DNA sequence: ATATCGAGTTACAACGTTTGAATAAGGGTG
DNA sequence: CACCCTTATTCAAACGTTGTAACTCGATAT
């Protein structure tokens, strides 16, 4: 072992992290051999067992860790996946994030999470970053994202595999995983109908959200099937808002509006759980009890739905699972992109996966009150 | 312009992303010149204005973006900061995260967020990843982190600048930013005392959390100062739990226990907001009204505190701000580490910053009831 | 004796960027 | 005209990895 062969390494004792060269020197083999062994490449099979052992020991002794930058540069694989959420403070997002992270991890990929806060400049910035970092894929949690559809279109160009969660997007390239909103709306309405409610109020979500219309359609279908008429007087529309947490006050406002209109109702379908919590507040102020006087159903099943008093009956989106499904799909896309490389550019047709919702019965719904029409006190008589 | 000089570039039309060489070829200057100009290096001043313009135009035309991997490799700066949270689904974390992200962004640093889920193997994994990715700094949101203190100690070794949020850590290297829990406890207790409450119950937090004891101490101090005795019968202890969201059920259980003991009380200091929401539930079940019968104070001021019915009076931690402060401090550490390089290793003494809390008055507290001692119905008579 | 082989191992050229040193062309000055 | 000083520009060597091509060195076949 000629120790003075690499004066730079032995001389420079400003203790840098060990590199392949360090391990090579320590073990007495070449850099190539070390790389082969530590990556368990097929070629490493042709190295003698003893060599492999010595290299591994040396690496362990030095606590060697490959440099991700060098590796990405050389292998053109960043091991990074960009994840864009519209607002990380929204509980809706975090569960999906957990699903994404859990699925990415065994694949050896690291998520780069970015909160774009519904701002299109942040959106641009993130796209730029994603390209610079050479992310291998992109996941966008987009249900409450108000960025113009056109900006999303930009994804298609750069050719990076991408998946959307919570929003359908007409594209030949980008797939979507989202809840079956129509079915969810149906479930919610059916639940109230089964409990005997006939006067059902509805708080429709903001118009810019795809979800709003679909849930509403599902509710209508269920009502029609049961031969129940939905009184237009009992339907209110939430205003547009860029902040999902505003749902609470919007829900309270909408409910007060309903009460003001004076039309009696015993059931209330809120756009989502935050809306429902706002409704709870408004009803509480008005002095009517849930579920004794009025039953409320939410949507999403965010963790807080369980914490409300009374806890919310809601339509579960299985958010974590949706994150998992989207990520699994993305992993497939990434693998495909890696494979064909320059061969037949098989574009792996985009698909849209509607995730089945499930009704979660909790305390905010109950049988229709027997006395009178069960309207709140303020409306009786 | 000799087009065939670089056959590799012009021949290989499997359209890769443009590199410096591409821009160089297009503009007719050297790679060095392009690099100099695009990075606005001092040396670029010596290039003619015309040259600079042409290079910039070429880069823009090609939509050139530097490759982060190559750049990190060469410059030994990853532009990455590792951010560890104990549970990304905890609203406590997400606000801090927003503060971190907002502060990191103008500094050109990208956070790598990792949810370690209170598991020590995840913790290890993250540390490994952070080293591989050569993160320039580390932020740990650690208030509800149960990893043994020893594992945290490992941070000190690797020499990466680090900051903790929400937990004090005896270290000469790692700084902490956390709420002044004692002051917070004091504020909460004083608030109830000012409202006239004399029989105040307390739900103490899990023993493993530093926060628990300190808040308790602050409460005691305030009580003593006012000459009010805290009845041990009115103090309950939350069990240990690795899941912060469990706080809700633990809070409900603790409150039921308080009611069971039969000692009348009109005020209740909960460990945190989730605990308080659990208390709300238990009191609701027991048929007593908040704040008419009993006043409740939470801690943290998570967004959901506002959404409760009634909304929670609580002690605000200014979570976003704490994230910002910790990050700013970390940026300083990083800059220092970059500067001295091999010169005097000035270790930038670790500091502990106690963030001042603030009482937020909402609906869950009110004046002590006049009738009787204001005990819940079940306890009266 | 030489050609052939395969097992074991290594040299070397990338990947895209940065940067100190080097070069080339003017433009005075002695 | 040899000198040095700007000004404008490029060279070439890294950074740590990876993977292909090539090299040794015995052993076996010709």
Describe the 3D structure:
2 copies of one chain form a homodimer. Helix content of chain A is about 45%, strand content about 15%. With about 375 residues, chain A is α/β, with parallel strands linked by helices. A 6-stranded parallel sheet of chain A has the order 2-1-3-4-5-11, with helices on both faces. The first copy, chain A, has a 4-stranded parallel sheet with strand order 7-6-8-9, with helices on both faces. In chain A, strands 10-12 form a two-stranded antiparallel ribbon. In chain A, helix 2 packs across helix 4 and helix 3 crosses helix 4. The first copy, chain A, is elongated, with a radius of gyration of 28 Å. Chains A and B meet through helix 5, helix 6, strand 2, helix 7 and helix 12 of A and helix 5, helix 6, strand 2, helix 7 and helix 12 of B. Chain A binds a DNA duplex (30 and 30 nucleotides) through helix 3 and helix 5.
Task: Name some characteristics of this structure.
4-stranded parallel β-sheet; 6-stranded parallel β-sheet; 13% strand; homodimer; 43% helix; alpha/beta; 381 residues; disordered C terminus; DNA-binding; 14 helices; disordered N terminus
The total count of helices of chain A amounts to: 14
**What is the average of the pLDDT values of chain A?**
89
Overall geometry of chain A comes to: elongated
- Uncertain regions of chain A: pLDDT < 50 for 5+ in a row? 1-13, 341-345, 372-381
What's the gyration radius of chain A in Å?
Answer: 28 Å
As a percent range, the share of helical residues of chain A equals: 40-55%
Class by SSE composition of chain A: alpha/beta
Largest interface: A-B, 47 and 47 residues
Please indicate the percent range of residues of chain A in DSSP E strands (runs of 2 or more).
5-15%
Please list the strands of the largest sheet of chain A in the order they lie side by side: 2-1-3-4-5-11
Element string of chain A (H = helix, E = strand)? HHHHHEHEHEHEEHEHEHEHEHEHEE
* First-to-last CA distance of chain A: 101 Å
Largest sheet of chain A: 6 strands, parallel
Oligomer: homodimer
Tally of strands of chain A: 12
């Amino acid at each position: 072992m000629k120790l003075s062969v690499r004066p730079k390494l032995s001389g420079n004792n400003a203790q840098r992290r060990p590199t392949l060269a360090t391990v090579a020197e320590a073990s007495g083999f070449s850099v190539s051999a070390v790389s082969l062994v530590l990556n368990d490449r097929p070629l490493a099979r042709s190295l003698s067992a003893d060599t492999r052992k010595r290299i591994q020991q040396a690496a362990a002794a030095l606590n060697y860790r490959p440099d991700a930058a060098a590796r990405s540069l050389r292998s053109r694989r960043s091991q990074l996946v960009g994840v864009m959420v519209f607002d990380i403070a929204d509980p809706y997002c975090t569960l999906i994030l957990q699903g994404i992270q859990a699925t990415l991890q065994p694949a050896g990929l690291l998520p780069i999470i970015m909160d774009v806060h519904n701002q299109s400049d942040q959106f641009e910035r993130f796209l730029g970053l994603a390209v610079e970092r050479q992310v291998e894929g992109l996941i966008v949690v987009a249900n409450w994202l108000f960025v113009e559809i056109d900006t999303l279109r930009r994804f298609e160009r750069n050719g990076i595999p991408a998946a959307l969660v919570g929003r359908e997007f007409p594209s030949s390239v980008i797939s979507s995983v989202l809840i079956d909103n129509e079915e969810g709306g149906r479930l919610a309405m059916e639940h109230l109908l089964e409990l005997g409610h006939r006067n059902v109020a509805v708080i429709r979500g903001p118009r810019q959200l795809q979800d709003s219309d679909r849930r509403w359609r599902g509710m209508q279908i269920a009502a029609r099937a049961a031969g129940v008429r939905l009184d237009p007087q009992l339907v209110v529309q939430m205003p547009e808002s860029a902040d999902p947490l505003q749902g609470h006050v919007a829900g309270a406002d909408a409910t007060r509006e309903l009460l003001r209109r004076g039309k009696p109702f015993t059931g209330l379908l809120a756009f989502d759980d935050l809306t429902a919590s706002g409704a709870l507040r408004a009803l509480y102020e008005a002095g009517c009890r849930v579920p004794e006087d009025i039953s409320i159903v939410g949507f999403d099943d965010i963790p807080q739905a369980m914490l409300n008093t009374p806890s919310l009956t809601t339509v579960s989106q299985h958010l974590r699972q949706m994150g998992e499904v989207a990520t699994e799909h993305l992993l497939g896309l990434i693998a495909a992109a890696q494979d064909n490389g320059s061969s037949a550019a098989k574009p792996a047709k985009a698909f849209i996966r509607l995730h089945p919702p499930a009704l979660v019965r909790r305390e905010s719904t109950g049988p229709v009150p027997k006395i009178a029409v069960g309207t709140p006190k303020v409306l009786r008589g």
